[in-house]
Amino acid sequence: MPFNVALSGLKASSLDLEVTGNNIANTSTVGFKKSRAEFGDLYSNAFLGGGSNSVGDGVQVQNVRQVYNQGNISFTDRGLDLAISGSGFYVLSDGGETKYSRAGQFGVDKDGFVVNNTGMRLQGFDADDDGNVGGVLTDIEVDNSNLAPVRTTLIDPDLNLDSSQSVLEERGTRLLAQGGLSGEITAGISNGFPSETWTINLPDGTTNSITTAANTSAGAIAASLSTLPGVDASASTLATLDVGTYNPAAGDSLLINGVTFSGTDLTSLSSLAIAVNGSALGGVTAVLQDAGLATERLELVHNQGGDLSFTLQGTGTINVDGVTTNVLLDPANAAPVPSATVGGILDIIVEEGATLTPATNTLVASFSSSSFRNNQFDPTDAGTYNHATSTTIYDSLGNAHVATMYFVKQGAGSTVQPNTWQMHMLIDGQDVGDPVVGTTPTRASYTLIFNEDGTMNQNLSDQVLVSNWTPLDPSGNPNGASGPINVANGGALPIPNPPTSSNFEIDLSDTTQFGSSFSVSDMQQNGFTTGRLVGLDVDESGILFARYTNGESRVLSQVALANFNNEEGLSPAGETAWVQTFASGDPVVGAPGTGTLGSLTSSSVEESNVDLSDELVNLIVAQRNYQANAKTIETADQVTQTILNI
Q1: Could you tell me which residues are beta bridge partners of residue 180?
Q2: Strand 196-201 relative to strand 355-358: parallel, antiparallel, unpaired?
Q3: Potential cystine with 547: which of 155, 330, 503, 535 (Cβ 3.0-4.6 Å)?
Q4: Where does the pLDDT of residue 53 fall: very low under 50, low under 70, confident under 90, or very high at 90 and above?
Q5: Helix-helix angle 612-644:2-25, to 10 degrees
Q6: Using CA atoms, how far apart are residues 457 and 209, in angstroms rounded to an integer?
């Protein structure tokens, strides 16, 4: 009957309209996959076969197939909006029932679980405290509590020390030799320096000598000695006139190094000081000390180590004080004229490992010898260290402190081999070396020795353990954080895990000494202060990171994806989700980007794969089909009515 045929056509067209309308309705549904109606014709078949002239019985709907082709990816401003590029479905738990979806609009509920907009919980693989992702599928949960602070136990810098830097510190032996003060009533007054042969013995075994004549001034001797390798000499001369023994008479004249002072120049030590400083005495300076007091004295200094000679002419007296003794100038008791000569003091610096020997026993007896270090390291003086760099470290309470490393190049010598540096460590400007006596910290210093190719010789270099750091508050008092364990009390490397003190290591194994400028390529340390959760990020492999206000990030979980051998066998469950069926097969669950699974794009969503233009055309076609089948019924009705009217 044509009525049945037309009715089947109406039914099929109506279903086609429903499918098309559903596609159009979900054009803006994220993760939606369009469907299409698939039809087949109907024929009546008799037993053992059908006639060759069979007329069809209409049409039937064979399948409503979902099309899983990729939808467009659009970008959003939410970190938990996710889009799958390629195959796969999000795994969701809906009250214990597992569902699958391509809609990646996720958020965090009040309990900290990552859920979609209908409350289904996103499934993933949990990570441990070290960020290692496991293989057990579970609800992805975000811990909203503050991130606890972690104390610094390791600083790992990547540095280059400039091998062309000069040695800033001077080390060696300091020798002091002094001339005498002699007074004569006749000519030929001596300054105390005899004829002398000086011999320098250098660390490399070489020797050099020089001879100075008797009665040579300290300044002239210093100039001669400075020509020897490994020797740096200087000289100065000091003579003093005391107010208690300064009694020139009217009309007296005082000659100082041949320059005459008389009259008002001699009325007082103050007048004499003014006269000397305004005179032609080269290199001589007069300084009045304790003016107006009973201890008033005039100091005459020859800053180049020249002799200071005094001659008094007249009837008064003047006492001249030298380094070791004094001479009274008294013309009334001396003839022809009383004179005195003050010799200077030699200040001789000999490089470390070298010795300077005068041959004359008389002069040897006047020597004093001591080791010296000039321009020693001082953290407040940038001229005493070659390089410095700082980093922030954290105590057990999460308080920040500034750790500064200073690098000082060492001079090679008998006790120091080439390519040696000294590293000094201060924290918040305070020394942190273990105490020698009591509890006072010493300077924390470590020796670094480099090979000829610029790499560090780790066998000869010190391991750097900071074992006496007491964290202080801004007022300089202990702030309550964990304190140190000195080496004497068991502090040692490696640092235990978990740590039990403020001790930490500095790993300088990657430090180099090349002929290029000082550089800090990297500066890592493993501590941080407390942090508050400020954001979540997901990378293309599905790793979920939590970002905190202290700059740290933590791996919380990894989003899981599932795929099926026959994804068209999934059953739609509404809310843009599907459930597994026998036809779909079992899911293959894994990490994004592995196997046949696609990758993830964060801050993005996959749009519906509906093409609105195609659907509108399909809508017109379905409407025409429906109208045509209705016309078939109308025509069949007219034919039937004609038969009934016969």
Answers
A1: none
A2: antiparallel
A3: 535
A4: low
A5: 160
A6: 39
Strand (E) or helix (H) holding 620: helix 612-644
The residue among 230, 98, 620, 167 whose CA lies nearest residue 410 is 167
CA 84 to chain centre: 38
Q: How many residues does the chain have?
A: 646
On the CB side of 208, CA atoms within 13 Å amount to 13
C-alpha triplet 377, 459, 455: angle, nearest 5°: 70
Of 457, 452, 391, 396, which Cα lies nearest the Cα of 427?
391
User: Within its chain, how far is the Cα of 455 from the centroid?
Assistant: 21
Q: Please name the residue that has the structure tokens 């011999």.
A: 199
Q: E strands, 185-250, where?
A: 196-201, 207-212, 231-247
Give the predicted TM-score (pTM) of the model.
0.62
d(CA 241, CA 248): 12
State phi, psi for 260 to the nearest 5 degrees. -95, 135
CB count, 10 Å around CB of 481?
20
Name the burial class of residue 169, with classes exposed (0-12), middle (13-18) and buried (19+) by CB atoms within 10 angstroms of its CB.
Answer: middle
> Distance (Å, rounded) from C-alpha 6 to C-alpha 268?
143
Cα 408 to Cα 162, 502, 507, 626: the distances in Å are 11, 26, 18, 94
Residue 249 has which token pair? Answer: 């008479």
Tokens of 61: 């709907």
Neighbours of 352 (CB within 10 A): 19
Q: What's the rounded Cα separation, in Å, for the pair 408 and 116? A: 60
Instruction: Please compute the mean of the pLDDT values over residues 374-394 and round it to a whole number.
Output: 93
Determine the distance from the C-alpha atom of residue 260 to the mean position of all C-alpha atoms in its chain, rounded to a whole number: 69
Check: CB of residue 106 under 8 Å from CB of residue 628. Answer: no
Residue 498 in tokens: 């978990």
Q: Is the peptide bond before 358 cis (omega within 30 degrees of 0)?
A: no
Which has the closest alpha carbon to 114: 145, 144, 136? 144
